[in-house]
Amino acid sequence: MCINFIGSIVGTLLRGSVPRNIKEQMPLILGLISMSLGIVMILKIKQTPIVVLATVLGSAIGIGMHLEDHIKSGLFKLLRGRRDEHNFSTEAIDKQQEQIKNNDRLEQLIALLVLFSVSGMGIFGALNEGITHNPDMLVSKGMLDFVSALIFATLLGMLVAIAVIPQAIVLFGLFYSAALIMPLMTANMIGNLSAAGGILMLATGLRLSNIKTFPIADMVPILIIVMPLTWLLLPVFG
């Protein structure tokens, strides 16, 4: 988490000196890395039908709850400050909703929030280090996060540091609860969770690369329901 914050500071300080072509092209490279890692994690899948079901149901839950819309609204308020907060005319509300929908900075921030906080690497890295004290996966993720924070801070400034907050909550929570969670996880649960995290990383990479804007924040519930589904459907799929 600290390395992301440091990357945000360094990127903000270098904001005016980083060449424009690097600012424009590096997010594509970071998106490619995310997609590649996502594919590697998807290959660990144990029960394809369960992961497919979790992806469909989890995405439907997130879309139904408008998770991404709520996140966008909160981030938009941070971006625009407190200006016009007392203007509640229909025209002003419609204009604000359109700004939220078409704000590229929001799209990048949401992608970073998901990449930093609930990527497959982060989840497994925190659980693995909590049990085995092997930090290899978290170190690899830290390198990716640092570069991502630095590059996007040259575009978005210290707003990138916002991602440190949910990341700290998720990863510290997983790290300290690893001793309780890991003994309950079967090989099928771990493989299916890996695949679900890989799907999310693949979608995040496509979004970072501006190839396709998947509703990745709405897809986060996939990670929550994939393990319970694996357990519930054990009699069916073994």
Given the C-alpha coordinates, what overall shape results?
Answer: globular
- What is the element string, with H for helices and E for strands? HHHHHHHHHHHH
User: Could you tell me the radius of gyration in angstroms?
Assistant: 19 Å
β-sheet strand percentage: under 5%
Helix content range of the residues, please?
over 70%
Q: What would you note in describing this structure?
A:
The protein is mainly α and 238 residues long. It is built from 12 helices and no strands. It has helices at residues 2-13, 20-42, 48-65, 67-80, 90-101, 104-117, 120-132, 136-156, 164-181, 187-208, 221-232, 234-237. The chain is globular, with a radius of gyration of 19 Å. The model is unreliable at 82-102 (pLDDT under 50).
Task: Produce the secondary structure layout.
Blueprint: H1 2-13, H2 20-42, H3 48-65, H4 67-80, H5 90-101, H6 104-117, H7 120-132, H8 136-156, H9 164-181, H10 187-208, H11 221-232, H12 234-237
Helix pairs in contact: 1-8, 2-8, 2-10, 3-10, 3-11, 4-6, 6-8, 6-10, 7-8, 7-9, 7-10, 10-11
Give the tags.
77% helix; mainly alpha
Brief characterization of the structure:
The chain has 238 residues and is mainly α.
